[in-house]
Amino acid sequence: MQTTTDENVRERAREAAREIRRFIQAGIATQTLKPGDKLPTEREIAARFMAARNTVRKTLDSLEQEGIIIREVGRGTFVSDKLALHLAASAPPTASANLDLDLVRKTSPRDLMEFRLSLEPAIAELAVARAGGADIERMQAAIDQSRVAKSLQQFEDCDDALHCAIATSTRNPLFSAFAVIVTQIRNQGDWGALKKKTLTDEMRDVHTVEHVEIVDAIRRRDAAAARAAMTIHLQNVKAMMFRGE
Hints:
Layout: H1 2-29, H2 42-48, H3 53-65, E1 69-72, E2 76-79, H4 83-90, H5 103-106, H6 109-130, H7 133-147, H8 152-168, H9 173-186, H10 189-198, H11 201-220, H12 223-241
Antiparallel strand pairs: 1-2
Helix pairs in contact: 1-3, 1-7, 1-9, 2-3, 6-9, 6-11, 6-12, 7-8, 7-11, 8-9, 11-12
């Protein structure tokens, strides 16, 4: 039993490291992160991806060795000015070099919700068949963290972490790519401005209940329920954000 538990912990660490790497490289490829831009702190990255600080540190060490980022004592971590030399070689499938570099900035919240409603219910359904125990633990951890989030940004980070965990659990790199791009777009000003106006404490509670229903359906291996729960959740998010328009 202990061996199984230890392996689950190691798998969670490996998957968190992959997600952190994808997030940073996708930001670079889409120019959301530009040469010289400062990255979030280790603590912030750890909270966003539900990862141990040691996992974050090792991932950043690896990216630094590849020349993708630079770390300065007392100042922080920055995108390397030598980025152009590394982008073509290092950009993962989640951030194709052929991607329109203005895509993230051009995508409106309405565009994003239409996109999410067309894909995420199917992703949740596929997660029922493919998610392992470690994946479901990460989903649950994101929900648990969202319950104690002290700010809108912390809640949004937990929300991102949950949806990324569901997409990653499908073991399909294209769905993982989708989750990264969604996160990048959600970090833009238009989305944040709408959320600040509409995401009340009451709606946070509603979203949390909906998240629980999605993950419970995945845990029960109920594909129809997972698809339905995700559809209802996204429809409610859309209705909340565009109420009165």
